[in-house]
Amino acid sequence: MANFNIDSTKARTYDAIVIGSGISGGWSAKELTEKGLKTLVLERGRDVQHIKDYPTTNMMPWEFEHRERLPKEITDANPIAARCYNFKESSAHFFAKDNEHPYIQEKPFDWIRGYQVGGKSLLWARQTQRWSKYDFEGPARDKFAVEWPIGYDDIAPWYSHVEKFAGITGNKDGIDTLPDGEFLAPHDLNCVEKYFKESVSKQYKDRHIIIGRAAHITDPQQIHLDQGRAKCQHRTICERGCPFGGYFSSNSSTIPWAMKTGNMTLRPHSVVHSIIYDDKKHKATGVRVIDANTKEMMEFYADIIFLNAAALNSNLVLLNSTSSRFPNGLGNDSGVLGKYVAFHNYRASISGEYEGFLDSTTDGRRPNSGYIPRFRNVHKQETDFLRGYAAGFGANRQTYNERNGLGESLKAGLLETKYGNWSVGSHMMGETIPKESSYVALDKTQKDPFGMPMLKINVGYDDNDEKMIKDYIEQVSEMFTQAGFKNVKSHDGHRNPGNDIHEMGGARMGKDPKTSVLNKWNQLHACKNVFVTDGACMTSTSTQNPSLTYMALSARAVDYAVKEMKAKNL
Amino acid sequence: MERRVALKSMAMAVGAMAGLPAWASGWSKSTLEKGTLLTADQSKILAAMVETIIPKTDTPGAGELGVGGFVQKMVTDCYDSKAQASLKSGVSNLDEQSIQRFGKSYSDAGKEQRMQLLQDIDKGSDTGQKAFLGMVKNLTIQGYMSSEYVMTNLTHYEMIPARYHGCVPVTKG
Fold first, then answer.
1. How far apart are CA A518 and CA A124, in angstroms?
2. What is the dihedral of CA A460, A463, A465, A467, to 10 degrees?
3. Of A138, A206, A229, A519, which residue has the fewest beta carbons closer than 10 angstroms?
4. For chain A, give me the number of helices (H) and strands (E)?
5. What is the ipTM of this complex?
């Protein structure tokens, strides 16, 4: 690449480069461009423009020729993606295809990916809880992984910052394990969910049932209207892309906002090969990119680089960014890069029925559900496993149609909706422990179709997870039984790690450069102009869904980076 | 390069998915038009069968609503080869039974004759034919209940409810 002329180099030079356009990349782009930086956003997949590129968003159920089920040929060719709950006829085009993007599973790991502008922000389940101080203090108190270099107070203002813009529905519940945020009007809990809330609060001081906090605009504010977004219409077909912008996605919110500043250049079809490190300048000078269509290698240059490729891909890019200064991957002086990967454990669920409130039902649809914040080992260690779990909780009035017989009696049965009992259900969301033995690494010989080394993933469940599953089943079954729910059944689905889509770590934050990759500003300890603010940065995993934290960390890191750049410290 | 050519031909093959850009229709089955599982005559028998399962009353039956085509499409595209074989042989066996007992093809048999043949399978001991009937019945119910006619006129599907109320009285519908 040494033969680029000077004009060409100039044309490929920006103030900042953002690698990835998903939840965290979108936020990095928005904040950087708002602060006036000419920013190049690189996305490995195709462009997906809000509304225009949501081909299924307004299709009626009968317009799907297989009624949402995917042809066998597609599920057979994509066994990993096909295990994801959201991989269906209406949304499959937002998933990366297994056979086009191979990786190596040293242990079973369902790596679910969205390779397009907006990434997985088009597909997410939109739950957005803040972490609490107990989550940030976890590793230090319970002596695992390393201490977080930040606490709740460091990030709280940034949670507020991103919540106001993204639009989060929720109720101010005043629970210390789950700090309140800047909420729009809450969704309703239904009668059985409210009844369960009362039942639980009678039995336990520290267990709560609340309505989920989710990235839906229930009550649009000027800042949302300015983004061209409108109120959530309760269609509950969010995974097709929402034409109203009723839920937060990069496509409806941060990316067009960044584009409007005039400072953003978006380059889709750009598979990032590595970050270029200049041994003489002691900093990164740019990014090497493989054009996904032509396979041509090219370089782009910038003063600061935000790596937001999604957790495992950000690890891959850093590991593949080698130089004489960093032979084992950019910023990897400690040797921990790629290690201490963890995830969320969604394996177990519990179901039951309630025979009360039989004269009541629900009306409309709700893109949200109830939530049980973590209650185990919060204030002190009280069980034989570390950390804890949150849980989803929801109730629905069962309806059914008689399907007996054939002919006119069958037809009559089908068209008369009958009400059964209420069904109730819960699923666990467990914190897993980042360990050195849970790692991703580059394969030395095998390459993917883009010529990148294949990523090896070695992440599995451990004894702590098994004990936690058992405890969740015992505790929540007990809560169900106390509430008088009948036919209570638990289920361990034994899903593979990764299927929860919350993989985290590998380039963890920490105080000590000897044991961590990033400092408290999400900045590489050893290469100050590179920042990682997606799931790769996470020191531990908490029980809360991680997306809101990625957004807040991204905005916070950009604020710091731009100040440092102006002070000529980068 | 090969992939691009493949995508292009795929886009041409799926005229039925008009209105979707190439990258979206790339997800629909490239071989959707590879031909149907059943012959034209067998398709007629299947249509008569789904109409017998959910017949015309004061509203259209499953046959008129094209549910036979849906059943065949689902089995062709989404089911394994065993289920496909079961559909084929099930339809043939049903027709043979009809010819044997009533001297005419299932598609030409009277309403009551058709029903009797299905009820005999239902009560009979041929597990293969029972499984065939069960599969067709389930898909017929799915296709009928999710048809435009039923969802628009009978069950009143709401695309955009714009609300959620957590506790309302049950109304007798």
1. 26
2. 160
3. A206
4. 12, 23
5. 0.92
> pLDDT at position A496, please?
97
Residue A362 burial (10 A CB sphere; 0-12, 13-18, 19+): buried
Q: Let me know how long chain A is.
A: 570
Which residues lie closer than 8 Å to A91 by C-beta, 6 or more apart? A56, A123, A239, A240
Which residue(s) pair with A394 in the sheet?
A: A425
Distance CA A102, CA A213 (A): 35
* A60 contacts B148? CB cut-off 8 A: yes
Distance CA A166, CA A227 (A): 10
Q: Nearest to residue A369, comparing CAs of A391, A349, A393?
A: A393
Q: Is the dihedral of CA A379, A383, A386, A390 positive or negative?
A: negative
Q: How many angstroms separate the CA of residue B137 from the nearest CA in chain A?
A: 9
pLDDT at res. B35:
60
Chain B contact set for A72 (CB, 8 A): 77-80
Closest to A169 in 3D by CA, of A218, A131, A221: A218
Q: Which residue of B has its CA nearest to A47?
A: B23
Average pLDDT of every residue of chain A: 97
Residues of B in contact with A235 (CB under 8 A): 159-161
Of B158, B140, B129, the C-alpha closest to B72 is B140
- Give the distance, in angstroms, between the CA of residue A151 and the centroid of all CA atoms in the same chain: 21
Q: What is the pLDDT of residues A119-145, one digit of tens each?
A: 999 999 999 999 999 999 999 999 999
The reported pLDDT for the residue numbered B171 is 82
Which DSSP string do the residues of B83-139 spell out, in sequence order? HHHHHHHHHHHHHHHHHHHHSS-GGGS-HHHHHHHHHHHHHSS-HHHHHHHHHHHHH
Number of H helices, E strands in chain B: 8, 1
**Three-state SS at A307:** strand
Give A429's contacts (C-beta < 8 A, 6+ positions apart): A344, A345, A346, A389, A390, A391, A392, A500, A543, A545
Which H or E run contains A199? helix A191-203
> How many CB atoms sit inside 10 A of residue A102's CB?
13
Partner residue opposite B78 with nearest CB, options A71, A401, A419: A71
Q: What is the pairing mode between strands A183-184 and A210-211?
A: unpaired
pLDDT digits 0-9 by tens, A79-96: 999 999 999 999 999 999
> Model confidence over A234-256: pLDDT tens digits?
999 999 999 999 999 999 999 99
Q: Which of residues 77-136 of A touch B (CB under 8 A)?
A: 92-93
10-residue averages of pLDDT along chain B (173 residues) = 37 38 48 70 97 98 97 97 97 98 97 97 96 98 98 97 97 63
Q: Which of B145, B164, B173 comes nearest A365 by C-beta? A: B164
Nearest CA distance, A51 vs chain B (angstrom): 13
Helix (H, G, I), strand (E, B) or coil at A423: strand
Closest-CA distance of chain B to residue A253, Å: 21
Asked if the Cβ–Cβ distance from A407 to B115 is below 8 Å, we say yes
